[in-house]
Amino acid sequence: MDGHTAKKHCLNMENDAPDGRRRRYELRRSILDYGMGVIIFGFGVFMLLAPKLGFNFVIDDFFRYAFSGLWLLYGGWRIYRGYKKNYYR
Asked: What is the total count of domains within the chain?
């Protein structure tokens, strides 16, 4: 390998390193979004089905439905964000 080819090879490796870090970061972030999305979405489903499961809350049914709807929306959005992996745009 001559000096020019070796230098070009080193430059390519330097350029690949940030790209690899970016992909690993996107993977970690998407796993986090999937996990948190499932937990939050599951909590929303639990709040909707709580009376049928034998859990009674002190809050009014209107607020229980409103909060569970918000949790379902936010959990769904976190799952969607993990699917799209749109972290740098």
From this structure: 1
Q: What was the pLDDT predicted at 5?
A: 52
Contacts of 32 (CB under 8 A, 6+ apart): 82
Q: Which residue has the tokens 């599951």?
A: 42
Identify residue 19 by its one-letter amino acid code: D
Rounded to two decimals, what is the model's pTM?
A: 0.71
Kindly give, in sequence order, each residue whose CB lies less than 8 Å from that of residue 71, ignoring residues fewer than 6 positions away.
Answer: 40, 41, 43, 44, 47
| Strand spans (E) along the chain | none
* Domain residue limits at 17: 3-84
